[in-house]
Amino acid sequence: METQKKRGIEGSELSPRSHYSKDIHFTAISPSIFQEISSNITSLKFALLLDRLTFSYHRTQFGLQLSACGCLQFAWPNYLDYQFPLSSISSIELVVGDVVLEVPGLEEILELIMEECAGLPLAIVVIAGSMRGVDDVNVWRNALAELGDRVKSVKDSNDEIFKRLRRELIECWIDEGIFDGLPRREAAYDRGHAIIDRLEKNFLLEKDSRPVGFGGYVERIPGAKMHDVVRDMAIISIGPEFGYMIKAGMNLVELPDEHGWVKDPKKLSLMENNILKVPFSLSPKCSTLSTLILSSNPNLSEIPESFFGEMLTLKVLDLSGTAIETLPNSISELKNLSTLRLQLCKKLKYLPSLANLKGLKKLDLHKAGIEVLPQGMEMLISLEYLDLLFCPNLKEIQTGILLNLSSLQYLAVCFLRETTIVRNLEEVARLKKLETLECNFDDIQHFNSFVNKFKDFQRAIAYSLVVGSAKDMLRRSKHELVITDCEIEEECIVLPNKLEDLWIMGLKNMGSSLSKIALLEKANELRMCYIRFCQEIECVLELDSSSSSSLLRCSVFDKLEELSLCKLPRLCELVRVEGEATPPHVFSNLKKLCLFQCSGIRKLLPLELLQTFQNLEQIEVVLCDQMEEIIASLDSDASSSDKFTFTFPKLRELRLVFLPQLKSICSAKGVMVCNSIEAIVIGQCPKLKRIPVQLPQLDNGQPSPPPHLKKIEIHEISKEWWESVEWDHPNAKNVLQPFLKY
């Protein structure tokens, strides 16, 4: 039996009547586990939650005498076998307490609520927690009504998760004024991350990541997700009586009429529907409305003048992802507006004057279709956030506008004409509160002009810069540069200071290696480098011990932590060594090495540089047709009887997929010591006959799994291959069988 105590709770955290409770997690169900439970809880009232069952069972199957106990049992989810030896009221009493039950008329409502929850553990826990201490029958009756509508959808989609990137979530909090009073956006982000961490620790949010990328590069950006039951329970707890009207994702095709609106709403969300239009006759009375979200209604194309007539307290307006072409002039009268989100409004052509919106802090026009900036922009003295990035029809920013936006902390803008760059840069450099700058340039020359003239890069400022055809940014680090589909020469790239992440994609005239780019020697803070579709590249580095300039340029990679090489047809080696001496620190901090579709390379890691790769955590080689060896062997290895040991003390993942010519990971006499390994993934490597990972040995000489191993994945290879592949010990496959996945 394997048990793991997750947390112990004493006192009244779960219930004023609880004297002791704890949460025990069992990794597997067995008769012995149920016998232990039965022997220890016969005198207690408790809730037993059996989560993620993959089989049907009966409560007597393992000898657990639930009828002798005070027990509420939940089974969830694959086979839903809900059983309630205690009454529904007792289950609420365990969490809420019995004081509330004395309220006349409440017991019947509670029983109906338990019926609606239908045994969903999370639903019961959340609603009980959110309603704890509430003794108003009307509030409970409203909770029952809303729960009835929502649990129906929950039962049909129990895995539905609402995902958001952390950045999006924190931006919403900033817009809502949660962090008002903090002097800088960086401080708001720090506070936001702390809140998300706290919500995750309390199981109201779950950790998540979302693949984001461009040009073949995919990065999993940290995010957060919320289970739909938690979301629905949260909506119930802030229902209409608090001024919230939330009808998001309900497939609405039209706005509710005025009778369907909450009285005096404060927050209104109609996002992610299919609303086609706003009726011209609709002018809802919303004298206290502060937030209106109509985003992600892709066919909403028009809003009449009268719609905003009685929304003078509006602070946040979100029309992102709609087909709107013009905004009504009544927007100009929303003098309390602090946030206007219009990103991805690709059909948007016209905005009315913003001169009266002196309290506007955020204007987001990312990827919008506007051709000219609205009048009155220079009057937005409170504006802290301005995003004009990737607006294909916007050709210039009029002189003087940026200069007047003295409160700007975040600026995203395209510089597409030489005259515009020169003029606007002088204004940008004078924005003393600027914390983050994101820019797009159409060619190298304009980019160089920008870097040469903008000396303010010496300041502690974050930047994301895109040169060429890329239409998005990863915001992976505080200092990143993306160069795509440009023609360059050796001396023509002027790199900004403090560069951490560098993407190079589709460059022409780049030369045979990065070592030939003289100005690269200034990128001494580089942490990540991604190279794709550069036809001339034959190697990443050329090391020549007789050339001081070569050694200086190679020193740029001393701090590099991640190197990704993608679709480089002429790449034949990672490092080309000339001369006897080898710089000791090249790649010494490299953690992640990835190769994808590099068809010319045969050997990955040169033996003479192997000691510099001691910090490697991940090796990934995919679709490299000619790859034969991961660790290059010497000709003398074949005749030697000595055993070679290659140590990778931090290697966590080894992924080798679609390598038809791969014959060996290292020489026949070599073994890899990597006790930190967590995952080995191998797929479509038919010529690979041996996996040289050395397993730790027990006192009796038998092998044991590496202490951190989680999985060995074999992709699209028959089980016969696994049976035939050799390991360093004849009993290794038996030991590793529990970790094997096909």
UniProtKB/TrEMBL annotation:
Residue ranges constituting the Disease resistance R13L4/SHOC-2-like LRR domain according to the UniProt record? 281-443
- Which organism was this protein described from? Rubroshorea leprosula
Q: Where is the Disease resistance protein At4g27190-like leucine-rich repeats domain?
A: 583-691
One Gene Ontology term of the biological-process aspect is: defense response
* GO terms of molecular function: ADP binding; ATP binding
Q: Which residues cross the membrane?
A: none
Keyword NAD found: no
Checking PANTHER family in the record gives: AND NB-ARC DOMAIN DISEASE RESISTANCE PROTEIN, PUTATIVE-RELATED, NB-ARC DOMAIN-CONTAINING PROTEIN-RELATED
Q: Which InterPro entries match?
A: Apaf_helical, At4g27190-like_LRR, LRR_dom_sf, LRR_R13L4/SHOC2-like, Plant_NBS-LRR
Pfam families in UniProt: LRR_14, LRR_RPS2
Nucleotide-binding: is it a keyword of this entry?
Answer: yes
Name the chain's protein. Answer: NB-ARC domain-containing protein
Q: Which UniProt keywords apply?
A: Nucleotide-binding, Plant defense, Repeat
Q: Which SUPFAM superfamilies does this entry report, sorted A to Z?
A: L domain-like
Gene3D superfamilies reported in the protein's UniProt record: Helical domain of apoptotic protease-activating factors, Ribonuclease Inhibitor
